[in-house]
Amino acid sequence: MPFMQSKEKTLHYDLRPLSSPEDVLFIHGNLSSNKWWEPTMVELKAQWEEDETLTGSLAAMEWLGCGKSRGPITVETLQMKELAKDYIQFCHTAGLKNVHLVGHSTGGLIALYCLLLEPGLFEKALLLDPVGAKGIQFGQEMYDAFSQMKADREFCASVMAGTIRGVQPEDPQFQALVDDAFQVQEEIWHGVPDALKQVDLYQHLKDIPHPVMVLHGEFDTLLPMAESQALAKGLPSGQFKKLKGQGHSTNMENPGLLAQEIIDFFF
């Protein structure tokens, strides 16, 4: 099981060499893990299984406190900028170059910080139902909900089911996602909402020249489509596309569709 040691952090990653025309790095959302990208990676491999000329890698890493990644968590280490630094270090450690980024939900913000911090390392980014450039201002009711999710796996599962359109709650794949969410480090539950309150990237969007595609599910009830549209509009080379029939998590709802969007935009 591969890990990257980063100071006191132990960050779990999935690296699949010679499986893509160019390097692609996937960044998951809050309370998630690399499992959220497995169906899309399988679809991409199927698209290219006859191609013997592939030179790139498909890669995913679980950010601090999520999945199998562990380490001391402070207010500072959960800032989106700091999480982005871990992904940049991973790219250098794994030898990834001219990287295409795919970020889902909170992972979309992390991807944007990656583009800002080391622009020469990255080529393009595809953001799937991302948190908007001004973050999220959670009310007390959401903090209470996160506390209940932390304490009650059944409640955690019911909330997560609302983020994947058409999910079958008894599906073993979904239950594995719930297990990963329920087992995040304790500081994640309120620490990430706190960090998202402090985000305001709008003034920096003009400094991101990379081509960025912002996708947003037609039936996403978790994050407002208007924020994704505003994000795309604020980027010099941003594009927006509504995914018809999809919810917040096309990576789980229709991974074949997402794989095709990735191929069409990156390659």
Sequence-ordered SSE layout with sheet pairings:
Layout: E1 3-6, E2 9-20, E3 24-27, H1 38-48, E4 56-61, H2 80-94, E5 99-104, H3 106-117, E6 122-128, H4 140-151, H5 153-161, H6 172-182, H7 188-197, E7 212-217, H8 225-234, E8 238-243, H9 250-253, H10 255-266
Parallel strand pairs: 3-4, 3-5, 5-6, 6-7, 7-8
Antiparallel strand pairs: 1-2, 2-4
Helix pairs in contact: 1-10, 2-3, 4-5, 5-6
Quick description:
The chain is an alpha/beta fold and 267 residues long. The protein has ten helices and eight strands. It has a single domain, classed as Alpha/Beta hydrolase fold, catalytic domain (Rossmann fold, 3-Layer(aba) Sandwich), CATH 3.40.50.
Total of helices: 10
Report the strand count: 8
CATH topology category name:
Rossmann fold
Percent strand equals 15-25%
Report strand order across the widest sheet: 1-2-4-3-5-6-7-8
- The low-pLDDT segments are none
Instruction: Spell out the helices and strands N to C.
Output: EEEHEHEHEHHHHEHEHH
**Tell me about the biggest sheet?**
8 strands, mixed
Secondary-structure-derived class? alpha/beta
Measure the end-to-end span: 30 Å
Question: Tell me, what is the CATH class?
Answer: Alpha Beta
Average pLDDT for all residues = 96
Q: What is the general shape? A: globular
Q: What is the correct CATH architecture? A: 3-Layer(aba) Sandwich
Q: Please give the domain count.
A: 1
Helix amount, in percent?
A: 25-40%
CATH fourth-tier homologous superfamily: Alpha/Beta hydrolase fold, catalytic domain
Rounded to the nearest angstrom, the radius of gyration is 17 Å
